[in-house]
Amino acid sequence: MQWNHQTLKTQLYSMPKAFKLWTNNLNVPLTHLQLLNLKDYIVTVPGFAKYGVKVNKKTGATSILSPEFWEGADQIANGYHPKRVFSTMMAKQIADNTLLIQRRFDGKVAIIQLESNQIETFYPTLSEEVYMQVFKSEDGFEQSDAYHVFCRKESRYFTLQGFLDDIIHEQLEGVKERQLKSCPDDGR
What we know:
The chain is of the alpha+beta class. It has two domains: 2-122, no CATH class; 128-182, no CATH class. Helix content is 13%, strand content 29%. The protein has helices spanning 128-135, 160-168, 175-182; strands at residues 2-4, 9-11, 32-37, 41-46, 53-56, 62-64, 88-95, 98-103, 109-113, 118-122, 141-143, 150-152. The longest helix is centred in the last third of the chain and has 9 residues, at 160-168. The N and C termini lie far apart (56 Å).
């Protein structure tokens, strides 16, 4: 549905037949994470859905947003489960009718030119130099706020195997002091 705030009229757009919605385990009906208002298109960024949709503002035509990019988005893989997490990590307009979008299940990024349907895909990487700048003094332990535990959150950079290796090689000596400082002193 599109609402024109100047004329106060609405217009309905049908989703393409290939559009695939799934219900998540929490029954959260969040089909789209966001709508991007580009020059000639409105783009829906998929949340609990396999595809994004582009709507041509001039003609009202709807179509699936680069369906080849979303292959596999409805499959369980690498800790990704489509009924538990969104199918998209992020999306951003980078030019009048060009979109940068990243799918969650494998982190692949696409630059999509909406008028020509051209797509360039890649996996983002860090050089060893940049990686060392970002993580040289990090051990992965953090406390997100005053109400949560101080822990090492598993990620691509701080893996379970890396955690076990750090314990075996006694590389976590400063963690205990930081953890004690982060815990409130409530007399226990």
